Amino acid sequence: MVSSVDLTEEVKCYLLELLRVLRDEYGCDDRNSLLTDRTFLVRAVRVLKAKALLEGREYCEPEDLKVRSHGRAMSPVVCSVLCCD
């Protein structure tokens, strides 16, 4: 089911920018946060597609990046990525 959800170009761009910010500005990498390009992009895409599917959509949109964890507010890192074009 999740494989049928489309990851739009706009969301791909935001996702790549989020990865860039995490690596370049926050120093996250495979040594300190288990963050690798492949792992992050595979898992993040699954989460985004699942969120879209749960909301009854067949496509992802930038707002899907605002997935909340345990009721906490969205990360300031995601906010900064979504607010810049």
Characterize the structure shown:
- Helix 1 crosses helix 3 (about 75-80).
- This protein is mainly alpha-helical and about 80 residues long.
- It has helices at about 10-25, 35-55, 75-80.
- It is elongated.
- The protein has one domain (about 1-80): Magnesium chelatase subunit I, C-Terminal domain (Helicase, Ruva Protein, domain 3), CATH 1.10.8.
- The relative contact order is 0.21.
Tags for this model:
mainly alpha, Helicase, Ruva Protein, domain 3, 49% helix, 85 residues
Secondary-structure element series:
HHH
Roughly what fraction of the amino acids lie in strands?
Answer: under 5%
Tell me the Rg in angstroms: 13 Å
CATH homologous superfamily title: Magnesium chelatase subunit I, C-Terminal domain
Q: What summary fits the major beta sheet? A: none
| CATH class category name | Mainly Alpha
Oligomeric category: single chain
CATH architecture: Orthogonal Bundle
Low-confidence stretches: 70-74
**CATH fold annotation:** Helicase, Ruva Protein, domain 3
Task: Give the gist of this structure.
With 85 residues, the protein is mainly α. It has helices spanning 9-25, 37-54, 76-82.
Give the helices and strands, then pairings.
Elements: H1 9-25, H2 37-54, H3 76-82
Helix pairs in contact: 1-3
